[in-house]
Structures are given as C-alpha cells and as structure tokens.
TrEMBL record:
Transmembrane segments: none annotated. The keyword Transferase applies. It comes from Lacinutrix iliipiscaria. It comes from the Bacteria. Pfam families: ACP_syn_III_C (PF08541). InterPro entries: ACP_syn_III_C, Thiolase-like. This is Beta-ketoacyl-ACP synthase III. Keywords: Acyltransferase, Transferase. Residues 281-360 form the Beta-ketoacyl-[acyl-carrier-protein] synthase III C-terminal domain.
C-alpha cells in the first residue's frame, strides 16, 4: 500500500461576499413579504457573509460543475497540468442535473483527456466520500494521483420563484399563506463555492498533508430523513419521491426545494455526531489531546457550544483553542465546506510539521458522519 498526501489545495468562491442585508435582494422576496424566519435563523447561525453564483443583476454566473472546474484549475500550473490528472472524484449535494453525473460534467468543462471519474451522491459527506475514493485509489496504487472536490451551487434552488407556484396554490386554500419554515430555514443557511485537493503518493510542495485514515458512519437504520430534496415526507416519516407524484404537483409542493426537519435535526445531529467521533477515535487509538487542529463542519454556530458540551458528556473533549472554523465568513458550503476550511488553515501560516488535523463532517440528510486524520509533513 502507498502513502497518500494532499499536496495542493484550492478553492473557488464566486463573485463577492454577500452580507445578511443583501441576501433577500439576491434570492428574492417570496409572496411580496419579507421572511419572518430570516432574522431568527441568521441570529442563530451567526453567518455574516456568504457567496452566491449570482451577479448584481440577478443573472446566474456559474453552475455547480463550472464552480468545481474553477477550483481544479487553481490546483494547476506548469508543474502539474489538468492533463496530468488520472482520477477525478467530485462530491456535491446539488448537482446541476439528475444525469449525467456531476463529475462527468466537471470533466466536460476541463477537457483534459481520458480519465477515470467518480460521483458520490449524498449531502455534506459526499465531499468526504469523494476524498475517500481518491485516497483509496492512490493508496492501492490504482492511480498515481487523484483530484477530489466538494462543491455546492444551492443559491438557484433558494430563489423566490422556486416557491411561487406553491404559494399561489396555497392562496386558493387559505387567506394568508407563508412558506413553511422547513423550506425557509435553508434559504438563510447555504452558500455557493467549491474546493479541490490534489492527492499523490509522494509528499511534494510546502507542508504536504499525509492522510493517516478515513472513517464513515451512517445512522439511516435508526433515524428517518431530516434534510431532503426531490420528495416530500409523509406523516409517518416515509419519504415519497418526486417520481411518484403527478407532474402538476412538483411545483405546487416545491418538491425539488431543499427542506430541513429542524426538530429532528436538533434531537440527533450532536448526539450521533459525538457517538461516531468516539468510534473513529477508539478504532484508530487516537486521543482528543493528540489533535492539534479540529475542523468541524457545522451548519450553524448555534450548535457549537452544544457540540462541545456533548463532547464533555461523552468523554471526548477537544479544547476550544484547537478548533478552526470559517463558517461566519464563507457560509455553509455543504460538501465543499471542509475543503474550503482546510484551504484557509493551510494558507494561514499556523501549521507546523507534525501537527495533527482532524476533519469532521456530518450530514443531516439521514445522519451520516465522515472523519479524516491528517499529519503535516
């Protein structure tokens, strides 16, 4: 088996940072009235700025595959060209279409010759699953290198016109229709962007990062769907897919919008997260005090204090001073968040040889968690 190193890291954040006061102007006002939930959600998540692939005139500037392609281009120079890529592994929660796959569309924009591609599906963990596929391929000697990415372009899913027909339909049923909170909630949480890693079997460049191990855990056998798109959840918890609804119901129910069961999120995301963290640390004989930098992808600062308390309760406390986050500046980029977070840490000048970095990524879709331990070389 080969060793595997992250030798290059790149990110791409479209256009310019969008402040909280600019958000509704970008995404649009639903049914002619400002969102009642916006200020509550923003106060809790404490996100100050985020990025949208939307220009100042409301035009879409990039799709998801184009954002990802730009992040990959950031990895390349005269010493490593796009044509040198042997494996392309791309994770996202928000592909531009059902088919072809996200990685196929990214490859189409790169136009860099015949290569292997991989497109893991899912939510935030899809970016880590993309990384694990590349990690295992390089480790096994199947490829000399792999480019792995995580990205999202959710802004277009959150535009006001996505929900207009549903609100018009509700108008026929009631006098004062409002968008359900499980849909409105995510409008003020998500951001656009992409990150990319170059994996190789030899360390190169300034402070390469060795991937020591990766672990993943799913709790879908215990908990029903919490965040979902392309379907609707029935009262008994069953997730009915869009393909089983008449086509005239697709827009009336906003079936393709992302939705979040906030109650289910609060009940499970932290408990299951720390439970899986304990399993990952125990399996790999790693103690919390061995971790120099803990990079948790969390959707909201609302969860930060509670996550820390849950760690203490379960005996895996990682001190505050070892946490590194950038949620307030870049927003929740889903599958791309951990890539963008690590890119900022690497370029911060804080790292030194021997530092241990723990990547921690949850997804609330049906509660799954992914972890990776890195060592600075």
């Amino acid at each position: 088996m080969k060793e595997v190193y992250i030798n290059r890291i790149s990110k791409y954040l479209p256009n310019h940072p969008i402040s909280n006061d600019e958000m509704e102007g970008k995404l649009g006002i639903i049914n002619g009235r400002a969102s009642k939930g916006r200020r509550i959600v923003l106060r809790n998540n404490q996100i100050k700025t985020r990025y949208y692939a939307i220009d100042d005139h409301g035009n879409i500037t990039h799709n998801n595959a184009q954002l990802t392609k730009e992040a990959i281009v950031g990895l390349c120079d005269d010493d490593f060209k796009a044509e040198d890529i042997e494996l392309l592994s791309c994770g996202t929660s928000s592909p531009d279409q059902i088919l072809p796959s996200h990685a196929a569309m990214v490859h189409g924009f790169l136009k860099n010759g015949n290569i292997e591609i991989n497109s893991p599906s899912g939510a935030c963990c899809s970016g880590m699953n993309a990384l694990k596929y590349g990690y295992l391929a390089v480790k096994a000697g199947q490829t000399k290198n792999a480019v792995c990415t995580g990205s999202e372009r959710t802004s277009s899913w959150m535009m006001a016109d996505t929900f207009e027909e549903e609100l018009q339909y509700l108008q026929t049923l009631e006098d004062n229709p409002i968008l359900a909170f499980n849909k409105d909630f995510l409008r003020w949480m998500l951001s656009d962007g992409a990150g990319a890693f170059l994996l190789e079997s030899e360390p190169k460049g300034h402070l390469p990062l060795k991937i020591e191990w990766m672990e993943g855990y799913s709790y879908a056998h215990e908990v029903e769907a919490c965040m979902y798109a392309g379907g609707d959840k029935l009262e008994d918890g069953f997730l009915k897919p869009w393909s089983e609804y008449p086509s005239d119901q697709w827009s009336k129910k906003s079936l393709f919008a992302m939705k979040q069961d906030v109650k289910l999120l609060g009940e499970n995301i932290l408990v299951k997260g720390v439970d899986s963290l304990k399993m990952a640390l125990d399996k790999n004989n790693l103690k919390p005090e061995d971790i120099d930098y803990y990079l948790p992808h969390i959707s909201s600062y609302y969860f930060k204090e509670s996550l820390y308390k849950e760690m203490i309760a379960q005996g895996v406390e990682i001190p505050w001073e070892n946490w590194f986050m950038n949620l307030s500046k870049v927003g929740n980029v889903g599958a791309g968040s951990i890539y963008i977070m690590l890119e900022e840490l690497v370029h911060s000048g804080k790292l030194k040889k021997g530092d241990k970095i723990l990547l921690s990524v949850p997804e609330s879709a049906r509660f799954a968690y992914a972890y990776a331990l890195l060592t600075v070389c």
